[in-house]
Amino acid sequence: MPEKRDWVIRVEGVNLGDTVxxxxxxxxxxxxxxxxxxxxxxxxxxxxxxxxxxDAEANIIYRAASQAVxxxxxxxxxxxxxxxxxxxxxxRAPYRQGDNDPPYVDxxxxxxxxxxxxxxxxxxxxxxxxxxxFVVDHAAIPCDVEKADGERLAINMAMMRNRRRQMxxxxxxxxxxxxxxxxxxxxxxxxxxxxxxxxxDLDNPDAASFxxxxxxxxxxxxxxxxxxxxxxxxxxxxADLRIYGRDARQTLYPVMMSQxxxxxxxxRGLFADPKAGVKxxxxxxxxxxxxxxxxxxxxxxxxxxxxxxxxxxxxxxKKRDESALRDFDQAVRGILAHYTYEMIGHFLDRADDPAxxxxxxxxxxxxxxxxxxxxxxxGDEFCVVLPGWLAWEMSGRILGWLDEAGQGQDVKLxxxxxxxxxxxxxxxRRAVALAETLCKDAKRFYDGRDAEACLSFHVFxxxxxxxxxxxxxxxxxxxxxxxxxxxxxxxxxxxAALAGAFRMSLxxxxxxxxxxxxLKNSFPKSQLHKLIDDLGDVDSAKVAEPGNGTxxxxxxxxxxxxxxxxxxxxxxxxxxxxxxxxxxxxRMKILADLWxxxxxxxxxxxxxxxx
Length: 611
What we know:
The chain is α+β, with helices and mostly antiparallel strands. It has four domains: 5-167, 2-Layer Sandwich (Alpha-Beta Plaits); 177-241, no CATH class; 258-468, Alpha-Beta Plaits; 523-609, no CATH class. The protein is built from 23 helices and 18 strands. The strands form five sheets. The protein has a six-stranded mixed sheet. A hairpin with a 2-residue loop joins strand 5 and strand 6. The longest helix is centred in the first third of the chain and has 25 residues, at 26-50.
């Protein structure tokens, strides 16, 4: 008789660069992101229906975005191989649009409904996992070690097998020869307008098309027009992910944050039924919608910017190994649920403020759009997209919400983040890649300070985000910043010292914001630039040279006379970003880059941060 053992099955969504961040179309990115976030819940439901004796509490070890691990006891190797194959087949099953299945339900509600003999009303919606890359592998749990240690060893083995399988998995299919061999103009039409690695499906236009505003994707094949909207041909993948992403939040959020909290957000306008007399608030359909119709009074450059905040848990892999796996999973999901609820609530509370909510959607005049989008980047990582004018304020708030929930756990958990502010037309993938590099820089610098949330930032005022610079974060950021900042301050500033001026901990965020606001309210930006020019030569010549003290005194005296400010040199330098060891002109240039994003609409950031 075949030996029966205990096993783990590990499932992970991989190759995210080619399945999530491979387009600039927000709706497609959202669909793939939500697919990764929802697959663990969907898989739980599938296993509950197809595996005899499956119990979520006993069988689920952890379930993070893009990852899930399940335990199955007392099974032969043939049985576990069959179950692994079943999961792979389920993930590859064709996605069917418009199944009209009822929304997600809470597990407790599911059990209660089963007792009421109502199981047919509780099917979960379909998942477009066929369009993602998932790896599924199993491993036996050693029987000669403690249960928790055995699970970890088996999970590590399954993860190694996942990685090997990932290396053999193609990222994206090659576009058919019909498109590749066509003339340039025709090729542009045959390739999907939002994903140029895939061809449109003209044989199935109803399932492989979507509606957009008439001014978007001018080279796409138009199948139908209706007012200012047009239906364009696309790949089935793009169409499926767009349709799934449109409604997935309404089914996923009640599971993430509880039915009660989700109902509270609906009562405040999120996805509200127009019949209820509440003007509906939804998530934006494009990156343009996030920053469209900027509020009045913004500095000219700010309205054309988007901000990308890449957030990652600090040493979560190590802490997961040191904790009870199921408890750790519960803690992380609780943190993300708290963040999601607080973030959406913050915007809904300001639904009448055009700075936070686009007051009239372009494709549906009856709706309003939240000016924020959270996209899963895998595991405990996510990326928040914001309009440039909310970048600084919301970065502090988001880290604060995460820290508030993370420090309330038995295992203290903290997050690090990278913030990129750049022109809205910058390629999405480049911006996210740089934000991730900044996040890694923050993690490296604050290594060993587990409880300290922190941020590393960079502002592109006019130029586009460059192609990703290879190498470790510190060196690559030095290549990025060197020409812009060393040029005015001398080559004696090394990468480490320069990078430190672009970092800030959550603990010091309110104080530093007050310092920046104090300077901003004391003199105009034009005088800051004049002071940078005046100090540049003195700084680069090193202040310790004979006679430089007199030159500096004259510069600062002239500055006070021009601005009428009572600030002394020490007052200004104490409030600048970066270390006092850095040249003053360099620190002022960093402040100049941040200037327009610090309280651009008089949000009173510093005062609110103290409350």
